[in-house]
TrEMBL record:
The chain crosses the membrane at residues 12-37, 172-194. Its EC number is 2.7.13.3. Keywords: ATP-binding, Cell membrane, Kinase, Membrane, Nucleotide-binding, Phosphoprotein, Transferase, Transmembrane, Transmembrane helix, Two-component regulatory system. Pfam families: HATPase_c (PF02518), PAS (PF00989), sCache_3_2 (PF17203), SPOB_a (PF14689). The lineage of its organism: Bacteria, Bacillati, Actinomycetota, Actinomycetes, Kitasatosporales. Residues 418-541 form the Histidine kinase domain. The keyword Oxidoreductase does not apply. InterPro entries: HATPase_C_sf, HATPase_dom, His_kinase_dom, PAS-like_dom_sf, PAS_fold, sCache_3, Sensor-like_sf, Sig_transdc_His_kin-like_C. The keyword Isomerase does not apply. It is found in: Cell membrane. This is histidine kinase. One of its GO terms (molecular function) is kinase activity.
Length: 566
C-alpha cells in the first residue's frame, strides 16, 4: 500500500523538512565516520610501524639471528615475545633472509616460512598496510633488520589486531548517535514550528489548490470592473489590474516602480499614496471622476480600489439639470396661471384693450429675450442652456444677465464640453449669488470667440473667493458648499474646505477640460464684491467667419436680461 502523503501545504513541507533533516544527519554521520575509520587505521599502522622499528633497533635480536637457530626457547623468541606483551601487539615476527620465522606468537610456526611476501622489507624498504595473515586481519608493518655493520640480515613484522580498531570505532558510535538524535530532534522541532506557522499563513490550503487560486486571482483581478492597485511596505507598486491601468493611464507591467515614478504629482497621487485620509475619496484623473479607497495590509503595504463615477456624475448632473428645468416649468406654470387670472380679470372688467396690451407685452418680453440669445449664441446647446438657466435663476430670485459682447458661432468642436464648463460655472455663480438674499443679486455671463478660441466669463455678486483659496477651489474634493442631506434642502451657508459626499468636482472638471484643450481657468475678485471666473478654450471653434463680429459692442457695455427676480 502506498504511504499516505498529506494534502495540506504545511503537512507536505513538514514531511519534506523531516526527510531533509534525517538525510542531513545520516550524511553528517557518514562523512564523520569515514574519516574517523581512516584515521584509526592510519593510527594502528603507525603504531605497528613504531613497534617494528623499536624491535629492529634491538641489537640482541640481530645478534641472536646470526648466532643461534630458530627454536621456541631461543633468545630471539624470548626477546620478541617480551616486546609483544609489553606493547600489546597481536604478533611480533622475526625472519631471516630466507623468510623463515625465528619468532611467532604460535611457537609451532617457528622455523616455517612466512605466509606473506617478505621481499620489500628484506630489500631494505619499510611497509605498512591492512592485510590478512595466519592470525587474521590486522594492521601490520614490516621493517628491515640490520646487523652492526648496516647489512640487512632479516626483517621484523608487527601486527595490531584489527578488531581493536573496529571496537574503538564502534565505541564512538553511541556518542555519534546521541549527537545525531539531538540534531534530529532540534531539526524536527524547527520543522514542526515552521509547518505550524506556514499552516496559519496559508490557512491550511493544499499544494494542488495554489495553482487554481492563482489562476482564479488573476481572472478575478483582471476581470472586475473596479481598479485595484497593491503596494508593498516600501510604497512600490506590487500589482495593477487592467481596470486600474485604464483609469489611471498606467502600463500594467509597471510593477516594482514607485508611485511618484509613474504618476505626476497631484491629488490623485496623494490619495493613492495614502497622504490624504478618508473613505470614498474623490479625485479626477484624465477627465474621469474616481472614487478611491485605501486599505492597509498586515505586512505594511496597502490595496487601493478605484471606481469610475464619471458616468454616474454626468447622470447626476443631467438629473440636476432636469430637476432645475422641472422647477422652472413649475414656476412658469404658476406665473402663467397668474397671468391668465390677470387677463381673465381684465376681461371681466370689460377692459379689453388693457388685456390685449398685457398679453402682448408678456409674450413679447419672453420671446424677445430668447430670440436675442439665439441671435448672439448660434450653437443650439449653449443657447438652450442659457435660456434654461435663466428660468432657474428667476426661480432662485437671481437675475441672469448675458452681456452684449457675447458672440458665439455654431462651429464648435465639442459643444458638450463647453456646455459642461458653462453649466458648472453658472451653477456655482447662482449658488453664491443666492446666498446674499439680496434684491439686486445677479450673475453675468459673457461668451465671445477670437479666431478658434472661445473665451467665457461668469461673475456673481456672492461673497467671492479669498486669494488664498483661488487655486484650491479648482482641486478635487474642495467645495464651498455644505454636504447635502437626503430630503433636506441645502441651507444658504457658504463654507470652505475639503468636503466628502461627492462635492468639489465641478470646478475641477472645468479646469481639467480647459487644460485638455490647452487653455486655462482662473478666478479673480469682482469690483464691488463677488467672483469672476475666466476660462480660455483654444481650438474650440472650427476656423471660419464669426457671425456678427463686426457689430460687437465693446467689452463691458450693454446687458441682455434673460431672467430676473420675480
Amino acid at each position: 500500500m502506498r504511504p499516505h502523503w498529506p494534502q495540506r501545504l504545511s503537512g507536505q513541507v513538514l514531511m519534506v523538512q523531516l526527510a531533509i533533516t534525517t538525510g542531513v544527519v545520516v550524511l553528517a554521520i557518514s562523512l564523520f565516520t569515514a574519516p574517523l575509520a581512516r584515521e584509526l587505521d592510519e593510527e594502528a599502522m603507525h603504531r605497528a610501524l613504531a613497534i617494528a622499528q623499536t624491535t629492529a633497533a634491538d641489537p640482541s635480536i640481530a645478534q641472536g639471528l646470526l648466532t643461534t637457530r630458530p627454536t621456541p626457547d631461543g633468545p630471539v623468541q624470548r626477546e620478541t615475545e617480551r616486546i609483544r606483551r609489553a606493547t600489546g601487539a597481536l604478533y611480533v615476527v622475526t625472519m631471516d633472509m630466507r623468510g623463515v620465522r625465528w619468532s611467532h606468537t604460535t611457537t609451532a610456526e617457528i622455523g616455517r616460512h612466512v605466509s606473506t611476501d617478505p621481499s620489500d622489507p628484506l630489500a631494505g624498504r619499510e611497509i605498512k598496510q591492512i592485510d590478512s595473515g595466519t592470525l587474521g586481519r590486522s594492521a601490520r608493518a614490516k621493517v628491515p633488520l640490520y646487523d652492526g655493520s648496516g647489512d640487512v640480515v632479516g626483517a621484523v613484522s608487527v601486527g595490531i589486531a584489527y578488531d581493536s580498531v573496529r571496537h574503538r570505532l564502534i565505541g564512538a558510535f553511541p556518542a555519534l548517535l546521541l549527537c545525531a538524535a539531538a540534531a534530529l530532534a532540534v531539526g524536527a522541532g524547527v520543522a514542526v514550528a515552521v509547518s505550524r506557522r506556514l499552516r496559519r499563513r496559508t490557512h491550511g490550503i493544499a499544494f494542488s489548490d495554489i495553482s487554481a487560486l492563482l489562476d482564479e486571482r488573476e481572472a478575478m483581478l483582471h476581470g472586475i470592473r473596479e481598479g485595484v492597485i497593491a503596494f508593498d511596505p516600501r510604497g512600490r507598486i506590487r500589482l495593477v489590474n487592467d481596470e486600474a491601468a485604464r483609469l489611471l493611464g498606467l502600463d500594467i507591467d509597471m510593477t516594482d516602480y514607485g508611485l511618484d515614478a509613474v504618476m505626476p504629482a497631484g491629488r490623485t497621487a496623494d490619495v493613492l499614496a495614502g497622504r490624504v485620509e478618508g473613505a470614498d475619496l474623490l479625485t479626477v484623473s484624465g477627465g474621469r471622476v474616481l472614487v478611491v479607497n485605501r486599505m492597509p495590509t498586515a505586512d505594511g503595504g496597502a490595496v487601493v480600489t478605484l471606481r469610475d463615477r464619471t458616468e454616474l456624475e454626468l447622470l447626476g448632473r443631467e438629473l440636476d439639470s432636469t430637476q432645475g428645468l422641472l422647477e422652472a416649468l413649475r414656476a412658469q406654470g404658476h406665473e402663467h396661471a397668474n397671468r391668465m387670472h390677470t387677463v381673465l380679470g381684465l376681461l371681466e372688467l370689460r377692459r379689453y384693450q388693457q388685456a390685449a396690451d398685457y398679453v402682448t407685452h408678456a409674450v413679447g418680453d419672453h420671446r424677445s429675450s430668447a430670440e436675442e440669445i439665439a441671435e448672439r449664441v448660434h450653437d443650439p446647446l449653449v443657447s438652450a442652456l442659457l435660456v434654461g438657466k435663466a428660468v432657474v435663476a428667476a426661480e432662485r430670485a437671481v437675475e441672469l444677465r448675458v452681456r452684449a459682447r457675447t458672440r458665439l458661432p455654431d462651429r464648435l468642436v465639442a459643444p458638450r464640453d463647453l456646455v459642461t464648463v458653462l453649466g458648472n460655472l453658472i451653477d456655482n455663480a447662482l449658488d453664491a449669488a443666492a446666498e446674499k438674499h439680496s434684491t439686486d443679486s445677479f450673475v453675468e455671463v459673457e461668451l465671445w470667440a477670437e479666431d478658434t478660441t472661445v473665451l467665457l466669463q461668469v461673475c456673481d455678486t456672492g461673497p467671492g473667493v479669498p486669494p488664498e483659496a483661488r487655486e484650491a477651489v479648482f482641486t478635487e474634493g474642495y467645495s464651498t458648499k455644505p454636504p447635502a442631506r437626503t430630503g433636506v434642502r441645502p441651507q444658504p451657508v457658504r463654507t470652505r474646505g475639503p468636503l466628502p459626499h461627492g462635492r468639489g468636482i465641478g470646478l475641477s472638471l472645468v479646469r481639467r477640460l480647459a487644460e485638455r484643450y490647452g487653455g486655462s481657468a482662473r478666478v479673480t475678485a469682482r469690483p464691488g464684491g463677488g467672483a469672476v471666473f475666466t476660462v480660455i478654450l483654444p481650438e474650440m471653434i472650427i476656423p471660419g467667419p464669426v457671425p456678427g463680429a463686426g457689430t460687437a459692442e465693446p467689452s463691458g457695455t450693454g446687458l441682455t436680461m434673460v431672467g430676473g427676480a420675480r
